[in-house]
Amino acid sequence: MRTLPATDIELAAWLRLSLAPGLKPAALRLLLGAFGLPQAIFNRSSEALAGIAGEAAARAVLAPPGPDFDAQLDAVIAWRALAGNHVVTLDDPAYPPALLTMPDPPPLLYIKGRLDLLHTRAVALVGSRSATPQGAEDAERFARELSQAGVTIVSGLALGIDGAAHRGGLEGAGGTVAVIGTGADLVYPAAHHALARQIAAQGAILSEWPLGTPARAANFPQRNRLIAGLVSGVVIVEAAMRSGSLITARLANEMGRDIFALPGSIHAPLSRGCHRIIKQGARLVETPDEVLEELGFAKPVAAKAASGQAMLWGDAGVRDASAGLASVANQPDSVAAPASAATRPESAAAPKSSMAPPAVSAEALQLLDALGHAPATLEILASRTEMGDAALQSTLLQLELAGQVTALPGGRFMRATHS
């Protein structure tokens, strides 16, 4: 190895260990515990190393670095010199303390942004990349209120729920941390370049992968392990039965972290993963306050008053089981609900089942997609579709006449269920 300035010798040793093929983090931790810093490990005999971590680990440590190691080291030194960039090793006081409770903490972390966010109380919000509008709104609201209570929001920078969680986390004092499955010098997906820049400026981006590592499917379960390790609890917002979010939940459970899940409609595919882990013991939560209370995190009084204690589907309502109504809340007088089919004049009543339902327009299909699988108010639908009041109400009526939407008391609408 070439001669290095004294300040870079230790970094070079850590980098060499982190890149050693076949050296698992758990084995490296054994060696560090026995011999101290990396330089001391390299000075040990193969027999001494094998006696602590096994022959495979000894061979990995003593193998000469690859031919491109010097170029990799130069790239890391140059990257670290940029404003806001940090390379943090296991022996560094800046290393996230929560990761030290893992059996296999990464030897070296690449971090862009605020190191202090890796030493705070934190909660992960994760879920489907193909989030529904309702799911994205719930993720952003949960993240915002938890962040306003001083809790750091951790997620994986993926599309859908992750992105919404980061955006919400940026709105509060707790901030947000993105744990990524590529090198810290890359952004994946490309659609999140602007969000990643904002997180790097106001929050933190963390990776254990060498610089230049592209997105690979095999990297993301390991990324999920770090998400689980950084936090006190994991909240699953939406997840299909085979969602990667369930991997995060399983890993977090194995580490002794608390698992929470938001319930959804039994008709929604992205609720099935949440319902599954609830059946397996995850806590069902409907408000951010429930997460704070379960984890023992105090919420500032001012933040609690500002949140209004909002429920998942709006203000708390009462389910009328005998009438088969969904849980709904009283709306302000200014939000008047269109008359239901039972009270509308006969000329506007829903057609008999023997009649063909009216064809629906492109606007109606857009509105139906925006409605998702949970009750929504006119204000929510207007925000999602950017439709004017008159167009929105006429389109809702069209969908109701087609038997695809049901008007609920309190000015809410939901998809009609069909047997």
UniProtKB/TrEMBL annotation:
Ranges of residues in domain Smf/DprA SLOG: 87-295
InterPro entries named among the record's database cross-references: DprA (IPR003488), DprA_WH (IPR041614), DrpA_SLOG (IPR057666), WH-like_DNA-bd_sf (IPR036388)
Signal peptide: none
Domain DprA winged helix: 352-411
Region annotation Disordered: where it falls in the sequence: 336-356
SUPFAM superfamilies: MCP/YpsA-like
Pfam families: DNA_processg_A (PF02481), WHD_DprA (PF17782)
Family statement drawn from the similarity comment of this UniProt entry: Belongs to the DprA/Smf family.
Protein name (record): DNA processing protein DprA
Organism this protein belongs to: Paraburkholderia caffeinilytica
